[in-house]
């Protein structure tokens, strides 16, 4: 598995992106991250809840209780309009960052 | 599922009780239970599934940090109280000097001197209060 400290700073955006696509709940998000990265990256659930807390505090997402499932009521998250704006911003920022890092990391192998 | 319950409560033990904490524990448990179900469907025994779910969960240091509300720095504004105290105090002291002056030495007016000295006290606090506002 990939070293997670580089990804760490972008976890908020990763989670936000997944919630942006559709309303999701915790376990679904961690599953989605694992399957999309083909298990190369796995988010620790504990970290995931910290991300939820942070995003909710910044009012980028909001939560509501959804349908009953095996264990009880699922807590779903939906993105706010502020969250959408933030995500857009982050995407631009990331593109720029990537270009800069690429300048130094490409062509070494 | 009792083991899960126990483990999660253990994890959150250091966190001060709050409604928020309860909600998160509930959410965490719900999600973990679903994960355990999934793992069991994939052929794991219940015990293995629970153990894996617990290990995957990781430690909650980050989460704890988010949960502990930054102590609201509601430092009470003392300057106003201090000012009031100094005013009342100096009035009393000056009144005492005036009394002594007129009672014992009515022919010599000297209470003005200590009055000026004492007035520095409320004056200082008055400006400190102004600065604070």
TrEMBL record, chain A:
The Transcription regulator PadR N-terminal domain, residue ranges: 15-89
Pfam families: PadR
Protein name: PadR family transcriptional regulator
From TrEMBL, chain B:
InterPro entries: Perm_prefix_1 (IPR047928)
The entry's keywords: Coiled coil, Membrane, Transmembrane, Transmembrane helix
Transmembrane intervals: 83-104, 110-130
Highest taxon, organism lineage: Bacteria
Coiled coil: 22-49
Protein name: 2TM domain-containing protein
């Amino acid at each position: 598995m990939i070293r997670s400290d580089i990804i760490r700073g972008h976890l908020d955006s990763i989670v936000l992106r997944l919630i942006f696509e559709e309303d999701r709940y915790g376990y679904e998000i961690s599953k989605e991250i694992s399957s999309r990265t083909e298990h190369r990256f796995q988010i620790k659930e504990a970290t995931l809840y910290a991300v939820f807390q942070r995003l909710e505090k910044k009012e980028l997402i909001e939560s509501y209780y959804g349908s009953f499932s095996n264990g009880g009521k699922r807590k779903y998250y939906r993105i706010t309009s502020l969250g959408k704006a933030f995500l857009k911003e982050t995407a631009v920022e990331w593109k720029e960052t990537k270009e800069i890092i690429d300048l130094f990391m490409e062509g070494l192998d | 599922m009792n083991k899960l319950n126990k483990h999660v409560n253990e994890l959150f033990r250091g966190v001060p009780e709050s409604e928020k904490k309860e909600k998160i524990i509930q959410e965490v448990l719900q999600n973990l239970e679903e994960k355990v179900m999934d793992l069991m469907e994939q052929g794991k025994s219940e015990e293995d599934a629970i153990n894996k779910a617990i290990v995957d969960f990781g430690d909650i240091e980050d989460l704890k940090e988010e949960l502990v509300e930054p102590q609201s720095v509601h430092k009470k504004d003392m300057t106003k109280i201090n000012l009031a105290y100094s005013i009342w105090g100096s009035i009393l002291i000056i009144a005492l000097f005036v009394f002594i002056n007129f009672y014992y030495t009515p022919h010599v007016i000297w209470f003005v001197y200590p009055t000026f000295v004492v007035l520095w006290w409320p004056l200082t606090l008055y400006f400190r209060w102004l600065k604070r506002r």
